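Structure request: BON domain-containing protein, Afipia felis ATCC 53690.
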Amino acid sequence: MSDIQLRQDILDELDFDPRVDASHVGVAVKDGVVTLTGYVNSYAERIAAGNAAQRVKGVHGIAQDIEVRYPDEKKTADDQIAKRALDIIAWDTTIPDEHIQVMVQNGWVTLKGYADWAFQRNNAEAAVRRLSGVLGVTNLIEVRPPKVSAPDVKRRIEEALKRNVQMESSNIIVGVSGNKVTLNGKIHAWHERTIAEQAAWAAAGVSQVEDNLRIA
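Returned structure:
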């Protein structure tokens, strides 16, 4: 696929996604690597724009340079953002809120603390980035999983990949050392990278995932 066609496909996907106002988003493509520029009205919209580009076949990489520009009437003080972030984390029963700390500086939220599972860390970030006034999120929550054997972790991840109808798992090599999982091999599209990472993080005992997958 040519870069010109890929750029048009991404523009069409951005325009199709109701979560994104693509009127102020620019797209440039070179050798399958996409650069997104311009601005949007919320951090959640910025994430949605990046996700839309990832869904397009032929995308090998993304440089996310979209700015978040809140209208004056929607700008929020840091202390208000912090309170809302703590509240929304506490309301989510999947997040161990007693172990999570929130800091906000100039609209940028930093999450610290620890969780037993990666999905809990991800849920905390997902909840906070939808709040009005947030310009970005740094997620420093540690995953402190229970100890399990490396062969068992490897087996569970490989079985999960084989079960997934959207994956060609035979091209993925799973390595496990301690609590770290390494993914190597070739995939056909960006969404397969996401699926493989999610499978790795879903295995008990995993606290780190290194993704070396290449899009063929």
